[in-house]
Amino acid sequence: MLAKLFFKDARLRPFFRVLVFVLATLLVAAVLWLVFDALRGQAYSAELNWNDLATGELASAIAVVLVAVLMRRYVDRRSVASLGFAPRGPWLRLFGWGVLLGAGMQTIALGIESASGHAHVVGLGSVAGDAKLIAVATAVFLAGALSEELSLRGYILQNLWEEWGVVPAIAVTSLAFAAVHLGNPHSHEQTALTVCGLVVFALWACASLLLTKSLWLAFGAHAAWNIFEGPVFGLPVSGVSIPVRTVLVESVNGPQWLTGGAFGPEAGLSSILALLVGFVALLALHKWGAFLGAVDSREGYARTLKESSAPSSADLARS
Fold this sequence. Notes:
Layout: H1 2-6, E1 7-8, E2 11-12, H2 14-40, H3 50-74, H4 91-115, E3 119-124, H5 127-164, H6 166-180, H7 191-212, H8 216-232, E4 248-252, H9 256-259, H10 269-287, H11 313-318
Antiparallel strand pairs: 1-2, 3-4
């Protein structure tokens, strides 16, 4: 009886794998963060800033990749490719579509704020400064997007999908995505809208996973969303302000329910409306065949009954 509680198919049950994954990732990330802080000679500050963000994103990304790959291979005993980042098929095209969608949705959000008269361009960055900022920010936000996508919509979602099914897995990981951002500055100034905006983004990313059978599009959109939101448009990224002059310097005023206030568009109606447009765009691209040719690296539990008659690439690799 006790064995059935903790084990399934001679493996640790998926739910307990998630718990082990979270604890192991937090431990490894904490150790790496301390090492990085020691190397740069600066301790973590109480107020989250740009340097802490960069250190944290790098430590988290390394920890997530290391723990997810090792656990998927040796604890789950399933293909690492099934986590969603197999470099097969048109993965680069999917990533590119993600970048366009992420940038496009942020542009729509800013456009809504500008059209309502609550956002105005008051300055521009320099060419040299912009190039340096975009280069550094791209590395930071790619690491951040990789960390969050591989952990929440990769390892955790896949295991909860196996344990409970796809709908509960999406619901739990979407709420978890919102929860992990509630420790950021200004997240509680309008908590309900902050949670709502973050959950809608998570649901959008999950929809892209279902349509493309991988995380490449969500990864590209997540990174581009943050890059355009902060370094390009000069808005707060989930409560963290860019401490140097951005490509566009925006003055944002008006109701927080629209703009998100000091937390940024994720906590406002502007990003929710932009994401609704993003859902329509995602479905349109799927209907037009933009995702055709995507390789299915998923495990059997993640395929529909119709698809299950054909072997996945993961099954073929093991045969």
